[in-house]
Design brief:
Blueprint lengths: L9 E5 L5 E5 L8 E9 L5 E5 L6 E4 L2 H22 L18 E7 L2
Antiparallel strand pairs: 1-2, 3-4, 3-6, 4-5
Length: 112
C-alpha cells in the first residue's frame, strides 16, 4: 500500500499525461446539533432556559440572548461528558419541562 492510500484525506487522481496528482480537500465540519429550548421569565427578573427534551441541560441569564448562549454551553458540557463516558446523549420523548405563559420556544444550533 502506498503512502497516498493510507491517508483518507488525500484523493489520488491520474492526470491526462499519466502523472499522479494528490489533491487535498477541506474536511467538512460536523453538522450542528439542534435542539428545542424553552426560555421562561422569572418573577425576580431574568430567564431560566431548559433543553426541552434533554434532561439536565438547564441555565439562566438576564436576557434571552444570554440565556441562548448559556444553554449552548450547558449542552456542550453535557455532550462532552457523554462522549468521555462513551454514552449516548440522554433524550426524553416527552418534554422535561412544562411551559407556562410567557415562555418562549427557541431552536438552538450548536457546533461541536
Amino acid at each position: 500500500m502506498n503512502e497516498l492510500q493510507e491517508q483518507p484525506h488525500i484523493q489520488q487522481v491520474t492526470a491526462p499525461i499519466g502523472r499522479v496528482l494528490s489533491l487535498r480537500w477541506k474536511q467538512e465540519s460536523p453538522p450542528p446539533h439542534e435542539f428545542l429550548a424553552i426560555a421562561c421569565p422569572e418573577e425576580e427578573g431574568g430567564f431560566s432556559i431548559f433543553a426541552a427534551h434533554i434532561p439536565g441541560v438547564i441555565s439562566q441569564a438576564e436576557t434571552v440572548d444570554e440565556a441562548k448562549a448559556h444553554i449552548s454551553e450547558a449542552f456542550m458540557g453535557m455532550l462532552e461528558a457523554c462522549r468521555k463516558r462513551g454514552e449516548p446523549l440522554p433524550y426524553s420523548y416527552q418534554p422535561v419541562v412544562e411551559t407556562t405563559p410567557g415562555c418562549q420556544r427557541l431552536w438552538i444550533s450548536v457546533y461541536g
